[in-house]
Prior knowledge:
Pfam families: DUF6624 (PF20329). InterPro entries: DUF6624. The chain has 308 residues and is mainly alpha-helical. Among the domains are: 121-214; 235-308, no CATH class. The protein is built from 14 helices and two strands, in the order ααααααααααααββαα. It has helices at residues 2-31, 35-48, 52-65, 68-81, 103-119, 126-140, 143-155, 165-190, 195-198, 200-211, 215-230, 236-249, 278-285, 290-298, and strands at residues 260-263, 266-269. A hairpin with a 2-residue loop joins β1 (260-263) and β2 (266-269). The longest helix is centred in the N-terminal third of the chain and has 30 residues, at 2-31. The chain is globular and about 55 Å long.
Amino acid sequence: MKKIFICSLFIGIFGISYGQEFTQQADSLKNEGLLMPALQKQYAALAQNTSTETYYKMASIYALLWTAQARDSAFVYLNNALKKDATLKVLYDPSFLSLIEDKRWEKIEDSQLSKYESENEFIRNKTFARELFRMIIKDQGFMYSGNIERKKYMQNGGFFSTPAIYPILAMEEKNHKENTEKLLNLLDKYGWPTASQVTEYAAAGAALIINHTNYEIRSKYFPMLEKAFKDGEAQPLRYAKMRDRLLVEEGKKQLFGTQWKFENSKRVPHPIKDPEYVDKRRAEIGLGSLSTYLKERFDIEWKIEQKQ
């Protein structure tokens, strides 16, 4: 009996390990834009080890395929993935842009918001929260395909590898315009969204969208974001990004190092005021070191000795 148990345990561990290997391969293929091969690897992972993570990743790949049949599959796997999930992650995951106009998405919103409230605080303005979540997805939704092509753009010396990128860029622009119009109307109706009203995740969407507009709109609404941040109702990174962006647009040096540009085909930060004290300023508002942030987010090497 003991030998049988040990053997079963070994087989189970082996299956999980094998499944994880397939999942890693699938992630790599997805990052390269190879969705169908990635999906095949996820099926192989699922055959070795049924997990909510694999269901979720399969749902995201199906959603990125954009066909009606793929959307049906995406909802099937997504509902399986979310059975025991009480987080709001799915509601602002840009992989699911192709799903948000489907009535089935409303049921997912209802379910996740309800489960979240049962384990966390009550969401005071769910209507506003829903709109913000959808706007985040629309803002970021084409980033997957767009960023793959932008990477190739740099590798190809300043040329896109396919003309398919241009309608994607046009759709990004359309989404940004629609988001801006909708958000400004909501801000006039409800004021700046705070974490206690719509959750921290949804509130971050307002700053994200405003930051993707223009200087006139950013400068008009930044004081509202700044007040929310000082009241502990807004994420420090969103505050830092908009503050830095406004400074750069005014021809001044940024404070927190969140804004970068291309120089000789490489990303570099815009000039930073007293760069040897940037980590001190970042820590004061609740952010980690700049070198770590730049490396992890943009693969930028930045090494300036810091002072306190």
